[in-house]
Amino acid sequence: MTRQKMPGISKQCGYAHAEVTREKCYSKIILKIATLGRCFAEKKMADVIDSEVFQAFTTYATLVVLKMLLMAPLTAYFRITRKAFVNLEDSSAHGKTPEDQKKLLRLDPEVERVRRCHQNDLENIIPFVILGLLYTLTGPDLSTALLHFRAFAGSRFCYTVAYLCTLPQPSRGLSWIVGMVTTFSMIYRILSTVLLL
Amino acid sequence: MTRQKMPGISKQCGYAHAEVTREKCYSKIILKIATLGRCFAEKKMADVIDSEVFQAFTTYATLVVLKMLLMAPLTAYFRITRKAFVNLEDSSAHGKTPEDQKKLLRLDPEVERVRRCHQNDLENIIPFVILGLLYTLTGPDLSTALLHFRAFAGSRFCYTVAYLCTLPQPSRGLSWIVGMVTTFSMIYRILSTVLLL
Amino acid sequence: MTRQKMPGISKQCGYAHAEVTREKCYSKIILKIATLGRCFAEKKMADVIDSEVFQAFTTYATLVVLKMLLMAPLTAYFRITRKAFVNLEDSSAHGKTPEDQKKLLRLDPEVERVRRCHQNDLENIIPFVILGLLYTLTGPDLSTALLHFRAFAGSRFCYTVAYLCTLPQPSRGLSWIVGMVTTFSMIYRILSTVLLL
């Protein structure tokens, strides 16, 4: 091989003196490219957002939040059919005289039942979504993550059915516990992966 | 052109045998660099976080959450001015004798109105923020996203004014429906983009 | 140096005509690599997810949400020990005759106290987590971020102790105010960094 002095290019490669062969210099370029390649292959938290686990999280989080949102129209439906309102401006369309309208400001057991179910959703589904996002960013296996998401979504749908249809007790309690266990399992995974106090 | 055997460099380029010209080998390097460049140009979900849509989401999410947070001091203000408390330790500073203090543990219609508005914020604004984040990550157009965010923020401010000032009914109901429609539109976009069950 | 015509490779480098030396062409490759390197060094919002600040956020967000979730079993515990239920299907296991069961559908001051504390958690901890995530993505210093997260987490634990143990008033109010100030400080940082209306 021919040896050549390359003062310009050797400086860019970071060699202090020009006494290098062309080949040695180009090898270094290739090594740099290889390093860049490895950089891409490296698993980064930000890449998790593009992963299938994140897509699964997005799907299930949207479904359970949608379920929670539907409790509001359901409450409105029960309020109107049972004629049980809480604001005078709401009942004004459903009673003729002011006394009639005041009578409609009452508590209805069915309405209260839907509202308690809605409140329980707020207390459980929102922590699930927050923790589910952080759990997804720890980069779990797709199968493990799907197991968590499906168990939680299933438990919440069972809970809602059990609450609204007044099923006998172990049913509502058990479905609530399944949701809690799933959430606590995600908390365990998050804190055992990332703990910076 | 001169042909040269390059055993070292040709291996790094991935050629099995050394019978390649220098030029062929370097062409491959350049192609690799081009691939890296394309990698950067590729639209990735994680890049969405740096986008203008994400900045718009951040702004509107912060504003509506700020609006929700301000309901708490407002409740406190009404509790103190109307002298309607819920805990004995809160009313102890506002009554002299223990009987006076017990009388202050009462429900006030204005306080309950603010609290219901706060509860409705919890039920609507938090789902909006969660779904808005997932919606932003699906990479919508800036104009479409801004339309959603502005419609929702506007609807919540109207809702609050309608509730606290006791405006006649279609106003509060309509502003609530605008917020719900916006949220459902975002759910539609999320589930039609990403659906992994 | 030897001058050589390189029609193939010079085109890939983007030179219109082949009248370039090999060295000039390879210098351009190295410059491209350097540009890629700078691309990596550039601070992007998406990289913040991999930062220590994000790890700190994940830890504290998980801890405060865990604290909030634990209020639900605590409510259940008080409901069972104080025998104060809200659904007939819940009290059916604790009373023999239907009249006994109906008597158990009552409000208990201790249960209501735990529930109000849970509600206050919902109203404060969830906004903190949402705003904390957006705050983290603005890329604050680790020490400043830790100060915010620790102050908020501390204030919520004090609030819970003050509420459940019925400590005299300034304690609960002050811990609530510390949490609010922390949250407002994060809102200020978010809106002063990112504001796209």
Description:
3 copies of one chain form a homotrimer. The first copy, chain A, has helices at residues 7-12, 22-41, 45-48, 52-69, 71-82, 88-91, 98-103, 109-137, 142-164, 170-193. Chain A is an all-alpha fold and 197 residues long. Chain A folds into 2 domains: 1-50; 51-194, Membrane associated eicosanoid/glutathione metabolism-like domain (Four Helix Bundle (Hemerythrin (Met), subunit A)), CATH 1.20.120. In chain A, helix 8 runs parallel beside helix 10 (170-193). Chain A is elongated. The model of chain A is unreliable at 1-19 and 37-42 (pLDDT under 50). Chains A, B, C: Homotrimer; The trimer binds only one molecule of glutathione. Chains A, B, C: Keywords: Acetylation, Endoplasmic reticulum, Membrane, Mitochondrion, Mitochondrion outer membrane, Transferase, Transmembrane, Transmembrane helix. Chains A, B, C: It is an enzyme of class 2 (transferase).
Identify the notable features of this structure and list them briefly.
10 helices, 2 domains, disordered N terminus, 74% helix, mainly alpha, 197 residues, Four Helix Bundle (Hemerythrin (Met), subunit A), homotrimer, elongated
| The first-level CATH class name of the largest domain in chain A | Mainly Alpha
Biggest sheet record of chain A: none
- Which bin fits the share of residues in helices of chain A? over 70%
Count of separate structural domains of chain A: 2
DSSP helical segment count of chain A: 10
Shape of chain A: elongated
Q: Mean pLDDT across all residues of chain A, rounded?
A: 79
Oligomer: homotrimer
CATH superfamily assignment of the largest domain in chain A?
Membrane associated eicosanoid/glutathione metabolism-like domain
The count of strands of chain A amounts to 0
The proportion of strand residues of chain A reads under 5%
CATH architecture descriptor of the largest domain in chain A: Up-down Bundle
Query: What is the string of helix and strand elements of chain A?
Result: HHHHHHHHHH
Termini distance of chain A? 59 Å
Given helix and strand content, the structural type of chain A is mainly alpha
Biggest interface reads:
A-B, 43 and 42 residues
CATH topological fold name of the largest domain in chain A: Four Helix Bundle (Hemerythrin (Met), subunit A)
Low-pLDDT runs of 5+ residues of chain A are 1-19, 37-42
Rg of chain A to the nearest angstrom? Answer: 30 Å
Pfam family, one (chains A, B, C): MAPEG
EC number (chains A, B, C): 2.5.1.18
Enzyme class (chains A, B, C): transferase
Family (chains A, B, C): Belongs to the MAPEG family.
